[in-house]
Amino acid sequence: MGHRLGKLLTPYFFVAPNTLIFGIFVLLPMVYGLIYSFYRGNFISGLQQFVGLENYRKLLHDQAFLSSLLHTLVYVFLVVLLVVALSLALALALRATSLGTSLARIGFYLPVILSPVVVGVAWRWMFSSDLGVINALLSSLGQSPVPWLTDINWARAVVILASVWSMAGFYMVIFIGGLNTIPAELYQAAEVDGANPRQQFWQITLPLLAPTTLLVTILATINAFKAFEIILVLTNGGPGDATRLLVQNIYLTAFEGANPTYASAQSVVLFAILMLLTLVQMRVSRER
């Protein structure tokens, strides 16, 4: 009896440390954040008064929050679209195993292991209006400098490109794994039937990559919604608030505005949006 009980409990014993860490550093803060969102208070006086849904009603008229939410939705849509397309294209180009493709995979994956702060500093150095490498190159070609980080549209474009560059290598690896699960016999049969590479891609590769594409889309969406460090270092949300995303707005509300309860309400909204988008993506994939 004791031996059987020990075998039954052994897996839980190994899982317990990770479960404990997850509970303390993820679940517990989530619960406290949800509770705080129904109160009014700050870091000095603590929770002062239960206000119910007042913080959430306030969000509906908060221009800073609504603006950052709109910027975030546009940013996420463009980043996810470009990341999925670029990582899939890289995976298709580098799926064959050779020394050259292995080196290329390493090169494209290197940005993934860099700190987001390092990525932000590097891109700021490249696109600085005065001392940037890109403007120096343009000047050497006789072109006028471009206000990359001080013009609203250029700043948004640079932020999106920096984010895509830092993430594409990770999802490329996932797509390569998905491509390797597709049986080669399907492509051989398609060639016998006279299908060209484009037809093979649309009729074989893309449909069989649907689960992998869903996974990449969900992960990229979550990561894009959480974007903070790169943008903070690269543009600090500027010019104005053109590149201020929701996470930065939450940070500013909690720490610079000393209003953690109101920031908690914004965090709950962000969590609800992520959960809703994930459920919709999974539902659409399952119906297909």
TrEMBL record:
<dbReference type="InterPro" id="IPR035906">
    <property type="entry name" value="MetI-like_sf"/>
</dbReference>
<comment type="similarity">
    <text>Belongs to the binding-protein-dependent transport system permease family.</text>
</comment>
<feature type="transmembrane region" description="Helical">
    <location>
        <begin position="73"/>
        <end position="94"/>
    </location>
</feature>
<protein>
    <submittedName>
        <fullName>sn-glycerol-3-phosphate transport system permease protein UgpA</fullName>
    </submittedName>
</protein>
<feature type="transmembrane region" description="Helical">
    <location>
        <begin position="12"/>
        <end position="39"/>
    </location>
</feature>
<dbReference type="InterPro" id="IPR051393">
    <property type="entry name" value="ABC_transporter_permease"/>
</dbReference>
<keyword id="KW-1003">Cell membrane</keyword>
<keyword id="KW-1133">Transmembrane helix</keyword>
<feature type="transmembrane region" description="Helical">
    <location>
        <begin position="154"/>
        <end position="180"/>
    </location>
</feature>
<keyword id="KW-0472">Membrane</keyword>
<feature type="transmembrane region" description="Helical">
    <location>
        <begin position="106"/>
        <end position="126"/>
    </location>
</feature>
<dbReference type="Pfam" id="PF00528">
    <property type="entry name" value="BPD_transp_1"/>
</dbReference>
<feature type="domain" description="ABC transmembrane type-1">
    <location>
        <begin position="69"/>
        <end position="281"/>
    </location>
</feature>
<feature type="transmembrane region" description="Helical">
    <location>
        <begin position="201"/>
        <end position="225"/>
    </location>
</feature>
<feature type="transmembrane region" description="Helical">
    <location>
        <begin position="261"/>
        <end position="280"/>
    </location>
</feature>
<dbReference type="GO" id="GO:0055085">
    <property type="term" value="P:transmembrane transport"/>
</dbReference>
<dbReference type="GO" id="GO:0005886">
    <property type="term" value="C:plasma membrane"/>
</dbReference>
<keyword id="KW-0812">Transmembrane</keyword>
<dbReference type="InterPro" id="IPR000515">
    <property type="entry name" value="MetI-like"/>
</dbReference>
<keyword id="KW-0813">Transport</keyword>
